[in-house]
Design a protein that fits this description.
670 residues; GIY-YIG endonuclease; Rossmann fold; seven-stranded parallel β-sheet; six-stranded parallel β-sheet; 18 helices; 27 strands; globular
Length: 670
């Protein structure tokens, strides 16, 4: 007996091993094994069993690790597809699918878990089942549920404006799947959204039917959830992108909530996009996949236009509430009037004051944490930079330190300019800490909270902040993009965007899309209760079409204008891309290697089928001590790009001091 084994190394090869007679009854596809590899023994995964092999003198497997297969057939099929599409080895894709408690050949873990308190209230009024559906909800559900009943694959883009009842559509689609004895996976983009999502699902389906996973769970907690799934206790899995590898069987529905989110793209091997991968898993398991968003990604809307998936719209808010009115404040005008650059405009200040007087709550959004975004010497022009990255250090007032938001390098505040020893250091830029400080100055009696990655560092911090805001212990909540998505607070009537220009000025081709999406999403947090909502957007570029379309809640107009640029510049979704990112601690090594690689790619680009761009330095040229260059390859088909790259890179060896990463369908080239 022989087995074919994959290993967690960047090697395309699959390796044949013989099976000692005493282990023949133990081997099975999907089980892990200890195998000799070169001069060591490592973990591999069995992907096939044969009675013969073409390899002479095969080595024998040492030990079978698992009593039952750890990976199901559909997970093996999914990881095989991921290896082909996302330019990695099958072994690397399989390693990503192995639950963290089982890494490095482990089979079990000691469990010691306290009951997690996911519920924020016993009987919340806003979580009652919606018996009366809107006409559009009914229409959407009729089509989706009929498809679920067929037991065949289907894909839907559920484009619903904020507070249009997308969650109720998810619930009823899942109920239809459960009635057919099927299961469901629900994806949420990040941990800060999880409390409310979990709360809603527990109230609807009961705690015993649901498993939860996210990065802040301990291995012990993850192991308990895995056991519950294995024992068939779990009907619904809720989690971020890693839940795509859930071992749930008989999947009927896959829901990707806020499908436009960047956090659904994995930055490490395998660099997969959750939306594309969820569609593939639905195809493999013959499930129905629902991609939900108020601001769908351009790729998903394009897929709907070209008939790959079906678009269903929810154009009205439930309970008949209107979308909030949006007011744009031109900060250029405010600066001229006040003869300074204010953090909070007079218009914003007056509106916050009115909301506080009415005992209503306010959300203020700024997608930049810290106090000041850089320190500058007005005498010599020196800016305090990170020693490991080509970025300015951010001033954090509460820690009295300068911190790099890319590598977490910390240093104390300089008293004199390190360059000229002058006493001319000035603090520029605005982060969430400075907004919080300004609010305390303007509204000394208001209870002010902050939600960003600094305040949410503690494991339970997101639950606590969520509870405090929901129970109205906080009047004004300041935060980064964690506040922009999915949260539903009926008492919030005012949402303020401190600076719409932060995301607009990022050197990235998706900057306009991100800006429109963030503004629309954060605007949707206002007016979800009985009182009407208002949104105030502060900007220095009020004429930009992304901001103007967000002002009118007009997704289709934004899509049409943005797609003109994408087509002219040959950018996604009209084309597929792969970024070849090179990095090295030696600057000249990475520059020379990038030039050699680009020339080699152009040499093998017969008939100019590929568009090859670069090499060029990445916008953040130095990151964590590495100098970084990139080459971008474009073609209408991702698999054709991969085939071309495998052929070229198979004939070329990356120099030892340089690291190469291939990112297929990159969300941003940074």
């Amino acid at each position: 007996m022989f087995v074919q084994v994959t290993v967690n190394l960047p090697l395309k090869n699959i390796f044949d091993y013989s099976v000692p007679q005493h282990l023949e009854d133990s081997v099975d596809v999907g089980k892990r094994v200890w195998v000799p590899f070169r001069n060591r023994v490592i973990v591999g995964c069995i992907i096939n069993i044969n009675s013969n092999t073409n390899i002479r003198n095969t080595k024998a497997i040492k030990e079978v690790i698992d009593e039952t297969p750890l990976l199901s057939d559909d997970i093996l099929r999914l990881t095989h597809w991921m290896a082909d599409y996302y330019f990695c080895s099958w072994g690397e894709a399989i390693e990503a699918a192995i639950p963290s408690p089982f890494k490095k050949g482990k089979t079990s873990i000691r469990t010691k878990i306290a009951e997690s308190d996911f519920l924020t209230s016993e009987h919340p009024d806003d979580l009652v089942r919606e018996d009366m559906l809107t006409l559009h909800q009914n229409k959407a559900l009729t089509e989706i549920i009929n498809h679920i009943k067929t037991g065949e694959y289907g894909a839907y883009l559920l484009h619903g404006i904020t507070a249009s009842g997308k969650t109720e559509v998810y619930f009823r689609a899942i109920e239809a799947a459960l009635k057919k004895n099927k299961t469901a996976i629900v994806f949420v983009p990040e941990i800060a959204l999880t409390p409310q999502t979990i709360e809603r699902f527990i109230h609807r389906f009961g705690k015993d039917a649901i498993a939860i996973t996210h990065s802040r769970l301990s291995n012990s907690e993850k192991f308990v959830e895995w056991q519950r799934i294995k024992n068939g206790e779990v009907k619904i899995m809720i989690g971020p992108r890693s839940a795509i590898f859930s071992s749930l069987e008989n999947i009927g529905v896959i829901v990707v909530d806020e499908e436009h989110e960047n956090t659904y793209k994995q930055e490490d091997v395998p660099r997969y996009n959750l939306v594309t991968t969820a569609i593939k898993r639905a195809q493999i398991t013959k499930a129905v996949v629902i991609l939900g968003s108020a601001t769908p990604s351009l790729e998903s809307t394009y897929k709907a236009q070209t008939g790959i998936i079906k678009r269903i719209e929810l154009p009205e808010r439930i309970k008949g509430s209107d979308l909030p009115t949006v007011q744009i404040v031109d900060m250029r005008e405010q600066s001229r009037i006040l003869k300074r650059r204010p953090i909070i405009s007079k218009v914003m200040e007056d509106n916050i004051n009115r909301s506080l007087q009415k005992k209503e709550q306010v959300i203020l959004f700024l997608n930049r944490r810290g106090f000041s975004t850089f320190i500058h010497c007005s005498k010599c022009g020196y800016v305090v930079h990170c020693k490991r990255c080509s970025t300015a250090l951010v001033h954090h007032f509460d820690r009295e330190s300068l911190i790099c938001h890319h590598c977490d390098y910390k240093t104390s505040l300089p008293k004199m300019c390190p360059e000229c020893n002058g006493d001319y250091l000035r603090y520029f830029g605005t982060g969430t800490q400075k907004v919080e400080s300004e609010l305390h100055r303007l509204f000394p009696n208001a209870r002010i909270g902050r939600m960003d990655s600094d305040t949410l560092a503690k494991k339970t911090a997101h639950f606590e902040a969520f509870k405090d805001f929901k129970s109205r212990k906080i009047d004004v909540m300041v935060g980064t993009q964690v506040l922009a998505k999915g949260l539903d607070f009926p008492n919030v009537t005012l949402v303020g965007v401190i600076s719409a220009d932060v995301t607009l000025n990022i050197p990235d081709f998706r900057a306009s899309e991100r800006t429109f999406s963030l503004l629309t999403q954060v605007a949707g947090r206002a007016g979800r209760g009985k009182a009407p909502g208002k949104v105030i957007i502060q900007t220095y570029t009020p004429e930009h079409y992304a901001i103007q379309c967000a002002l009118k809640h007009d997704y289709d107009s934004f899509y049409e204008q943005e797609m003109v640029f994408r087509k002219q510049l040959k950018l996604p979704p009209y084309i597929n891309m792969a970024a070849l990112n090179l990095r090295s601690k030696k600057e000249q090594s990475v520059i020379k290697t990038a030039e050699v690689l680009a020339n080699m790619l152009r040499k093998h680009n017969k008939a100019d089928k590929m568009i090859i761009m670069g090499p060029s330095p990445l916008p953040i040229y130095k990151l964590r001590g590495y100098f970084r260059w990139s080459i971008v390859v474009k073609h209408s088909d991702a698999l054709t790009i991969n085939k071309f790259l495998r052929m070229c890179l198979g004939r070329w060896k990356v120099p030892a001091q340089v690291k190469l990463a291939v990112d297929v369908d990159p969300r941003m080239i940074m």
